Amino acid sequence: MYSEKIRKRFIALFNTTPLVVHAPGRINLIGEHTDYNDGFVLPAAIDKEIICAIAPNYSNTCHLVAYDLDEEHKFSLEKIRKSEKGWPNYIMGVVDQFFKRNLEIQGFNCVFGGNIPLGAGLSSSAALVCAFSYSFNTLFNHKLTRMELAKLGQSAQKEFVGLQCGIREQFASVHGKANQVMRLDCRTLEHEYFDFKMEEYSVVLCDTAVKHSLASSEYNTRRKECERGLEILQKYNPAIKALRDATPELIDKHRAEMGDLVYDRSSYVVEENLRVLETCKLLSQGKLEAVGEKLYESHAGLSNKYEVSCEELDFLVEETKEMDEVIGARMMGGGFGGCTINLVKIDKLNHFIDSISSAYRSKFNIELKTYTIRIENGTGKL
Ligand code: GLA
């Protein structure tokens, strides 16, 4: 097992028994581009994770070993400076956040690694900060709640690494439960669990292996377009604080003033938000085929109204419509590349993977990477 490799390397290097913590990556079943509109998302923690073996070393120095990269980094707790290597910043960022909250951290040794595919949109960086915030909380006996750990991880990424991110990914890594998806209200942070038993269907991710350069500039543009839609609605009703508070009827009423573009963006967000709520209802009723339909609707909205898809993602989703074994598929994450998420009949998994891979190869000459995932418990001790 992967965690055993990490544990063994730690013992070989530091000759003491470590605390071993795992923090998973995540999927998002539905609810895309809703988080920054104060809306709902439906993530789950998965069986791809970061593992961290860690123990105090009773000094002022921290010794980090990145198992997969075969790199190390040492730093003094008295002087935390950004590293050009990149990865140590996530860990130092977490230390920095504990200090900012006046919570003590002593020197430590650690070995960490993971099996979350990088660049696929499965939130390996959120898992990394969560692994360390959980580890420090346990090791140095602080009493932060899981939500506080998620928020602390988010602040580490924002303030030390310099990455604008929402709370969704850290929330999912920390709060995940096996075979359950979590509906998170991004405004209040209230959350509720819904059963997602994978008895008949499995979740398969198909990695386009592309990331179009439009991703970050268009992301910011979408955020501005949503703000524009909101401003128009607020002129008439100041009680509307985010697009989450609007209804499809209200958006329609102001269509002319919004213009086609802002109308399409706003209408997508309002509809997607409703789809999350409907999906939860369908999950409670055990209607998985209908959930699959919601995924297709979500993709159509993301592609046509929100325009954050790309040729590769559209192709992968379109192909599945001809396949009996797939009940739903959509692009997952910010867009312009990354993975699609597919709900696939378990007894036809191999058939699905073979056919979609060969279709993708013929069309784009790219080897498709697929990941069949399980929904697992969130961050914790092993
Ligand atoms: C990116 C952001 C997330 C979310 C998604 C779209 O991945 O990091 O916070 O906005 O896009 O749902």
Q: Please, could you describe this protein's structure?
A:
- The chain is of the alpha+beta class and 382 residues long.
- It has helices at residues 2-14, 87-100, 124-139, 146-161, 168-175, 214-236, 248-253, 255-284, 288-305, 311-320, 349-364, and strands at residues 19-28, 40-41, 43-56, 61-66, 71-76, 108-114, 180-185, 191-195, 201-211, 326-331, 337-345, 369-373, 380-381.
- The strands form three sheets. It has a six-stranded mixed beta sheet with strand order 5-4-6-3-1-13, with helices on both faces.
- α3 packs across α4 and α6 crosses α8.
- The radius of gyration is 21 Å and the shape is globular.
- The N and C termini lie close together (12 Å).
- The structure holds alpha-D-galactopyranose.
- Alpha-D-galactopyranose binds at residues 32-33, 35-36, 165-166, 168, 333-334.
- Alpha-D-galactopyranose is lined by residues 32-33, 35-36, 165-166, 168, 333-334.
Question: What strand line-up does the widest sheet have?
Answer: 5-4-6-3-1-13
Number of distinct helices: 11
Approximate shape: globular
Low-confidence stretches: none
Helix content: 40-55%
Largest sheet: 6 strands, mixed
**Strand residue content:** 15-25%
| Strand element count | 13
String of helices and strands: HEEEEEHEHHHEEEHHHHHEEHEE
Q: Radius of gyration, Cα only, in angstroms?
A: 21 Å
Distance between the termini: 12 Å
Secondary-structure class: alpha+beta
Bound small molecules, deduplicated: alpha-D-galactopyranose
Overall pLDDT level: 96
SSE topology sketch:
Blueprint: H1 2-14, E1 19-28, E2 40-41, E3 43-56, E4 61-66, E5 71-76, H2 87-100, E6 108-114, H3 124-139, H4 146-161, H5 168-175, E7 180-185, E8 191-195, E9 201-211, H6 214-236, H7 248-253, H8 255-284, H9 288-305, H10 311-320, E10 326-331, E11 337-345, H11 349-364, E12 369-373, E13 380-381
Parallel strand pairs: 4-6
Antiparallel strand pairs: 1-3, 1-13, 2-7, 3-6, 4-5, 7-8, 9-11, 9-12, 10-11
This protein binds alpha-D-galactopyranose (GLA).
